[in-house]
Specification:
Strand content: 15-25%
CATH superfamily of the largest domain: NAD(P)-binding Rossmann-like Domain
Number of helices: 15
Number of strands: 22
Strand order of the largest sheet: 3-2-1-4-5-6
Distance between the termini: 36 Å
CATH architecture of the largest domain: 3-Layer(aba) Sandwich
CATH topology of the largest domain: Rossmann fold
Shape: globular
Largest sheet: 6 strands, parallel
């Protein structure tokens, strides 16, 4: 597909990298010639320096013939205008990054009246993900599928755990819980395991199950934690605004520490039920004075990665139930894991994943297209949700008779609101939701998991 990306900041650069690697014809527009030159040299893309809302620049980029235009500059208004102009001149689909909380209440209008295919708010998406983590703090990270009916949780195997030195085929009878371990991180490598795989202490595993089964699983392992009730947020930016609103709506107590006095006044007006503290969130005395030791969860959301890391390390040393760290530089990921800071959120990655999911669904609008997509373990693993098409060739065939490609695992089937952990005799039926976990990138259709025609049994 031909894709035009306007604005090559954090989100734009991430999209340029992923979409160019997936084989799309990408054109990048940015006001800064140096940024454009870097992208052109680093990836197989075209680049144009100029105003992404300009008719002439958009025509030069071929937006009139584009399958998709993504506007991801730092200006919401420029993004919306760029999408409107592109739609007028012939772009088939347009996506705008919109961050202003005032516009977040107008998303339906922006889509329907202005012709935007999608509106992405990285800060709101990040806040929603953090809120989900605080509702289920037992997991390092947690993702949801099938409108919340299925969850994919990441946990660590502790020494002496019921999982330590256990082969996977033994777990259903031993634990009597319906879960599937679909990916394992060990010694810097990611493994899509089979039933003979033996777990070890120190492994990080990704487990899929319904919410109820997952809670039972955590209780059996002795790692179950109640949802957070008292939350301290350090940093009062857009993410903190969205997050506090969601947490207060869920009945949690929220305290925000922010260095900018004017911002504190604004937060006090927007969030009258939250406690807003003017001060330096890196000040240990202030954190103690404001009750960090009594908090269930601490979320570091300042504008500097280094500050977020230091605050989180301190909160971790106080053994808070949940510590969430926001970072922008993904190069920190491996280092943070070694420090014990496992729950990391990255707004640019969250936004990029949503857009990539949309692109894959566009690429296959008639088959079993992608409904949900998450990139796990720093992008090394993908978890995707598909809806089985009526005419899919594999419908009704037992899974044991289907030849799937290597490093692909069917993690879950959802049928009529029932969650099925698949076994060999199970089948995929029309309108089922099917969750696939793989470290083979770029699946666009459910049939891509099969070894071409060899994936089907002989008739």
């Amino acid at each position: 597909m031909k894709i035009v990306i306007v604005g090559d900041g954090k989100v734009g650069a991430t999209l340029t990298e992923h979409l160019s690697k997936e084989g799309h014809d990408v054109v990048v527009i940015d006001q800064n010639p140096k940024v454009v030159e870097e992208m052109v040299n680093q990836y197989d893309v075209m680049g144009i320096s100029g105003n992404g809302a300009s008719y002439g620049v958009l025509m030069e980029a071929g937006a009139n013939k584009a399958n998709l235009l993504i506007a991801a500059t730092s200006s919401d208004e420029l993004n919306i205008l760029s999408c409107m102009v592109s739609k007028k001149i012939g772009a088939r689909h347009t996506i705008a990054r919109v961050r202003n909380p005032e516009y977040s209440q107008q998303l339906v209008f922006l889509r329907e009246e202005l012709g935007l295919s999608m509106v992405v708010n990285p800060e709101m998406e990040t806040a929603t993900e953090i809120c989900r983590l605080l509702r289920f703090p037992s997991a390092i990270n947690i993702e949801t599928f099938a409108r919340g009916r299925v969850e994919l949780a990441e946990i660590k195997v502790n020494p002496g755990s019921a999982l330590d030195h256990q082969p996977l085929y033994n777990l259903p009878d031993r634990l009597r819980v319906k879960i599937l371990i679909c990916a394992v991180q060990r010694d810097g490598k990611v493994i899509i395991p089979d039933g003979n795989f033996i777990l070890q202490a120190g492994d990080k595993i990704h487990v899929t199950a319904s919410h109820a089964e997952l809670a039972t699983f955590f209780k059996i392992l002795g790692i179950y934690k109640q949802r957070a009730r008292n939350v301290m947020i350090v940093g009062g930016g857009k993410i903190a605004h969205y997050l506090a609103f969601q947490l207060l709506d869920a009945g949690m107590q929220v305290k925000i520490i922010e260095l900018d006095r004017q911002r504190c006044h604004a937060l006090s007006e927007w969030l009258p039920k939250a406690t807003i503290i003017h001060g330096d969130g890196t000040d240990q005395e202030l954190l103690l004075q404001e009750g960090i030791e009594q908090m269930d969860a601490v979320v570091s959301l300042t504008g500097m990665d280094e500050e977020n890391i230091l605050i989180s390390m301190y909160a971790q040393s106080l053994k808070r139930d949940k510590v969430v760290t926001k970072i922008n530089r993904l190069a920190f990921l491996d280092m943070l894991g070694n420090m014990g800071l496992d729950t990391i959120v990255s707004p640019k990655t969250i936004a990029a994943n949503r857009i990539i999911r949309y692109v894959r669904a566009m690429h296959n609008s008639t088959g079993s297209s992608v409904q949900t997509l998450y990139k796990l373990v720093g992008g090394q693993v993908e978890a995707l949700e598909f809806i089985v098409a009526e005419n899919a060739k594999f419908v009704g065939i037992p899974l044991k008779d289907l030849k799937t490609k290597p490093n692909i695992l069917l993690a879950c089937i959802i049928r009529n609101n029932k969650v099925i952990i698949p076994r060999g005799n199970d089948t995929m039926e029309p309108r089922d939701s099917v969750i696939v976990v793989t470290n083979s990138q770029y699946l666009r259709d459910l049939s891509d998991i099969l070894e071409s025609e060899r994936g089907f049994p002989l008739s």
